[in-house]
Amino acid sequence: MPVTPIAGQDFDARMVTVLAQANAEPSDILALVSAWLQEQCGVRLVTMTQRETTDGSFLRLYSSMPDAYAASGRKPPNQTPWSAQVIDRHETFVANDYSGIAATMADHEQIRALGCESILNIPIVLRNQVVGTLNCLAGPGHFDERTIAACETMRLPVAMALLLHKQTS
């Protein structure tokens, strides 16, 4: 599947249309991002979280597989090597095999049951704080440099959705 390194005019036009709607919801933007990631980057599962900067907990705002990962519930903060990389240093986390996922994700068995053995967690940073994450999952060995770069182009639309969520909540 070809990977487009930038979102492109088609995505941008769809984004403008979504944002112009009087009743635009964060989930509308997140669904558009998810569809693009699945179509252009071959991602199997997409979730997006909002991080509460006061206590460090995460709320899942979107899931492309709501039966497996509901868009609700809050995860408590957890100091791990993953949080040091993603939250403290604002770096994207990549695990391209099941052992990498199992070492960092408590729900690794559920992830594997969905046919995912690669994960990409992209921090969404505003004003030097991680306010959320874009999480992409796929089959084993999926995330090469080009695919990671393409997925990271979705940071801005996700940030817009997070800001819209904050505005409407």
Helix content: 40-55%
Number of helices: 7
Q: What is the tally of beta strands? A: 6
The helix/strand series, from N terminus to C terminus, equals HHEEEHEHHEEHH
Spans of 5+ residues with little confidence (pLDDT < 50)?
A: 1-6
Shape category: globular
Main sheet overview: 6 strands, antiparallel
Structural class by SSE content: alpha+beta
Strands across the major sheet, in which order?
Answer: 3-2-1-6-5-4
Gap from first CA to last CA: 38 Å
Q: Which percent range describes the beta-strand content?
A: 15-25%
Average per-residue pLDDT, rounded, comes to 91
> Radius of gyration from the CA trace?
15 Å
Give the secondary structure arrangement, pairings included.
Blueprint: H1 8-20, H2 26-41, E1 45-51, E2 58-63, E3 74-75, H3 81-88, E4 93-95, H4 98-104, H5 108-113, E5 118-126, E6 129-138, H6 145-152, H7 155-168
Antiparallel strand pairs: 1-2, 1-6, 2-3, 4-5, 5-6
